[in-house]
Amino acid sequence: MFSSLFNSSKNRGNSAFIHLFLLAYTLLALFPVFLIIINAFKTRKGIFNDPLALPTSATFSTKGFEKVMANSDFFHYFSNSLIITLGALFFILLLGAMIAWALSEYKFFGSSFMRFFMAIGIIVPIRLGSVSILETIVSLDLVNTKTALILVYIAQGLPMAVFILSEFMAQIPKELKEAARCDDVSEYKIFFQIILPLTRPAIATVAVFSIIPIWNDLWFPLILAPGEEARTVTLGVQQFIGQYVTDWNSVLASLTLAVVPVLILYMIFSKHIIRGLTAGAVK
Amino acid sequence: MASVSLKNIHKSFGKIEVIKDVSLEIESGEFVVFVGPSGCGKSTLLRLICGLEEITSGVLEIGNENVTSLSPRQRGIAMVFQSYALYPHMTVYKNMAFGLKTAGEDKSKIDQKIRDAAKVLQLDQLLNRRPAELSGGQRQRVAIGRAIVREPRVFLFDEPLSNLDASLRIQMRIEISRLHESLDCTTIYVTHDQVEAMTLADKIVVLSEGKVEQVGTPMSLYNEPANLFVAKFIGAPAMNLIQAHTKAPLEDNEPRYINAEISGKSVRLPCLSYNYKDNQNLTVGIRPEHINILGEDQKTQILEEDLQLPVVIDLVERLGDVSYLYIHMEDGTPVVVTVSGQSKLNIDKKINLHIPATKIHLFNESGERIM
Lengths: 283, 371
Ligand SMILES: Nc1ncnc2c1ncn2[C@@H]1O[C@H](COP(=O)(O)OP(=O)(O)O)[C@@H](O)[C@H]1O
Ligand SMILES: [Mg+2]
What we know:
The structure holds 2 protein chains of 2 kinds.
Chain A: H1 2-7, H2 12-40, H3 44-49, H4 63-70, H5 72-105, H6 111-123, H7 130-139, H8 146-170, H9 174-182, H10 187-198, H11 200-216, H12 219-224, H13 233-236, H14 248-282
Helix pairs in contact in A: 2-14, 4-14, 5-8, 5-11, 6-8, 8-11, 9-10, 11-14
Chain B: E1 4-13, E2 16-26, E3 31-35, H1 42-50, E4 57-62, E5 65-66, E6 77-80, H2 92-102, H3 107-120, H4 136-148, E7 154-158, H5 166-183, E8 186-191, H6 194-200, E9 203-208, E10 211-216, H7 218-223, H8 228-233, E11 240-246, E12 257-262, E13 265-270, E14 281-286, E15 292-293, E16 307-318, E17 322-328, E18 334-340, E19 350-355, E20 361-363
Parallel strand pairs in B: 3-8, 3-9, 6-7, 7-8
Antiparallel strand pairs in B: 1-2, 1-4, 4-5, 9-10, 11-12, 11-14, 12-13, 14-20, 15-19, 16-17, 16-19, 17-18
Helix pairs in contact in B: 2-3, 2-4
Bound molecules: adenosine-5'-diphosphate (ADP) and magnesium ion.
């Protein structure tokens, strides 16, 4: 879509403008992250004297990281976040792809209601249902568990995943599945070995869209799993933020560390996204 | 290998009836071609046989077994699609193996089958490539290979050559023909190209608007088209059709002939049997190669009932081996004449056409053949 815009010579001036705009936006978006990272490597004094300065030999310090690393709880929170995010992501992608395939391929009783139901899930923010979600989790006896968070995040991510994936699946030529059906290939094998591989770019897109809100979420960990056992990084960081004293070194260091896994996951998936966007053009 | 039998097959999409009461017997090992103009329901009929579309009413039998309500999987067929429908993320080898592995066959046996098919189709060097790295003709071969390795009871082809360029099309046509000779498997082949139909088929089924117009060998369709539609569709350049109408007096004592008028001229047309009245419309059909030009060909023998028409040449096309003369008659009816060799005739020349009575096709008012 964009690549064709950039390639045509007619739009070269136009594309320079778009690039400039996107560059400006990128700088703006990255600035806070940049601030967090540079200040994570400064002494407390350095942070407060000049928050915008890069660390110098006088202000450089890894005290925050040392403190965070020494704090064994942090790794516990970190692994909680990772398990919850990856667990939810796995089910969002698997179930999302399955629902999308079912809705776009089969007519069954209640399929149009199901589609409508998923659309509502996109429109209505899940936080509106916090009270009843809490009630449900309490009655399931899942308070303060990772399972509770995983379940809620699956519900949060599914509608959008189904929407994007079913749009994408509708574009897969129907002859492919018809050929497979003639070839005596089972419906499961058609889904897992033809549809899923061909949907990979869309799945990567959905993965990236889904990871960030889950990893960054503070709301549901706070109300569903505030206990020590299932505490996530975002919630764990709060322990450094006191009512009277805030340990900025540790806060910034842990936030810096928290960016790393998201960055890695993004890099894994983005390779496929870019491939997906260019697939149609190159063909 | 199996016979296929269609009994009163109907297919409707919503309220629109696309296939109207098609009955057909296809013998085991036969190569049958469905031919007809675009949109006449050829693909739909093939998809009904395949099981990709549900039959609205009627009975379909494959190998004397009623398969009307079976899924494509259970019918023992293999289909080659117009768009090839190769799995883009799999290599040629995997494309062919995909359906077989599912059937739970032994690995070395599968491997042998694929290598055999690849050899026949000259794909041995390409087994590790992906479809995107193949040319159109090679993709087509992979699609055929994928069908062959399954050893189906019936092969189904839906316009398999229409995405290829002209020279490749002829080459693949010959390969398909050869393949059928060696496999001897029942084959149903759909095309809108009458040349493909004529060259490949044991039996042609001409379809129009969801109905069977005629079934027969290529030569029987060419020599004795059952109606105007088939007459127009089979043969290139198409059969010339000239309007005529019956004229009194009716000759009861000589039922082999009817009197008619063509472009103002009274003629006697040979006729098998025709219960005619005065002033009925008729269509006279004559193939371009059956028309002679008087004075050009010395050997022409003119019989009493033959037609002779004075005309003027509009256009001459010379292809080297044959020439086409485009002509119009006095009433404006266009006529094409094929003459062998490189015609010396030129535009605006007045000539006399000679139409041998024995070569005439005669169709009644509703388009059915009467001679
Ligand atoms: N799935 C469908 N739904 C509705 N109409 C269809 C469908 N498939 C085919 N048709 C209609 O049936 C007619 C025959 O189509 P088709 O069999 O594809 O023709 P052909 O292959 O001879 O060109 C066309 O008029 C087409 O619009
Ligand atoms: Mg078709």
